[in-house]
Specification:
- The structure is a single chain.
- The chain is an alpha/beta fold.
- The chain has one domain (7-237): NAD(P)-binding Rossmann-like Domain (Rossmann fold), CATH 3.40.50.
- Helix content is 46%, strand content 16%.
- The protein is built from eight helices and seven strands.
- Strands 3-2-1-4-5-6-7 form a seven-stranded parallel sheet, with helices on both faces.
- Helix 3 runs parallel beside helix 4 (103-128).
Length: 245
């Protein structure tokens, strides 16, 4: 799909999301950026898009609710008159020992990490049908590899495995409408802000390519999945070979 003069929604636009939005703008897209609590960050990303010569708008919404997702799509079509790409990046990454898990914790994790991807896709599909479109979800390299590996992440791992299943099912359901649905399963891309230098080095050493990937590797994959016309139902690991170790 040619991206110039098309419109993309990006949810969860912090850190990597900001770089993805800027790259889509560089390809000639106009951007709709959703946020829940980080208005300033959304405004900064919108400024990046405008600096690239494209249009941007921000919208406050809770993507874990049907109304929130409907609000984002309605804002996109009202502002730009169309929608071509949905990049669902909203996610929460946290751990909790199994014995301390509660139903409330479980629901909160799955609502952001899985339910939001489903609800945003459901809201976006009617608009995407107009000219075919692309949906890009975000899973995790561990779920893609069917290897939980780390204790304390049961809700997160379960949600990301669900994203993979959702991606495959949506791809089948929407293929005859020329809407392609794929997912990205990141590995060590950016260290979390609270990670120590020693921990950062340990992760790099455990990665066959010997380093963290950086935002650009996610950007390349997002662009490929937006521009391809014949890949659907795939979850691509971007993990430096971590699943091989």
């Amino acid at each position: 799909m040619e991206l110039r003069d098309k419109v993309a929604i990006v949810t969860g636009g912090k850190r990597i999301g900001r770089v993805v939005a800027r790259a889509l703008a560089d390809r000639g897209m106009d951007l709709v950026l959703s946020y829940r609590g980080s208005r300033l960050e959304a405004e900064e990303t919108a400024a990046d898009v405008v600096a690239a010569g494209r249009r941007a708008t921000i919208v406050a919404a809770d993507v874990s609710t049907a109304q929130g997702c409907a609000t984002i799509v309605a804002h996109a079509t009202a502002t730009f008159g169309r929608l071509d790409v949905l990049v669902s990046m909203a996610s929460v990454y946290r751990s909790q020992p199994l014995e301390l898990l509660t139903a409330e914790y479980w629901d909160a994790d799955l609502n952001v990490n899985l339910r939001s991807a489903f609800l945003c896709a459901l809201a976006a599909v009617p608009a995407l049908r107009a000219g075919g479109g692309r949906i890009v979800n975000f899973a995790d390299w561990l779920a893609r590899s069917s290897r939980p590996t780390y204790k304390g992440f049961t809700p997160y791992y379960t949600a990301k495995a669900g994203v993979i299943a959702l991606t495959e099912s949506l791809a089948l359901e929407l293929a005859d409408q020329h809407i392609l649905v794929n997912a990205i399963a990141p590995g060590p891309i950016l260290p979390p802000p609270n990670m120590s230098a020693e921990e950062i080095a340990e992760v790099a050493a455990a990665t066959p390519l010997g380093r963290w990937g950086g935002e650009s590797e996610i950007v390349k994959t997002v662009l490929f999945l937006c521009e391809t016309d014949f890949v659907t139902g795939e979850t691509i690991r971007v993990d430096g070979g971590r699943h091989l170790a």
